[in-house]
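User: tokens in, sequence out, please.
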């Protein structure tokens, strides 16, 4: 009989900046090799597994936990420039606006 791995949704927060925004996802105990980030039709999907050891030293059991987070990417985000970093249990996705849509300063000309 196959056991089903429980699925959870990780905690995350967004931080806006001039060029776009960052998505910080809290993934304590998750290793880089257990993560996957995919983009298809403007839907960004982050999936992974966390394995935890439980029990006494003599008898340890591994408990697996699967997570998934889906984020729809707005059309003003340049999907070619998405960057992902994994550091200290935080997965950070840097999403930048397409250059032609980024805010810019317009100089005022004198007569």
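Assistant: Sequence out:
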């Amino acid at each position: 009989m196959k056991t089903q791995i429980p699925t959870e949704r990780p905690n995350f927060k967004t931080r806006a900046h001039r060029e776009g925004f960052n998505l910080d996802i809290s993934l304590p105990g998750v290793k880089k090799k257990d993560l996957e980030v995919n983009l298809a039709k403007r839907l960004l999907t982050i999936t992974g597994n966390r394995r935890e050891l439980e029990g006494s030293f003599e008898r340890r059991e591994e408990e697996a936990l699967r997570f998934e987070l889906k984020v729809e990417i707005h059309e003003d985000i340049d999907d070619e420039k998405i960057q992902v970093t994994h550091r200290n249990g935080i997965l950070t996705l840097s999403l930048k606006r397409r250059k032609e849509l980024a805010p810019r300063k317009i100089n005022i000309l004198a007569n």
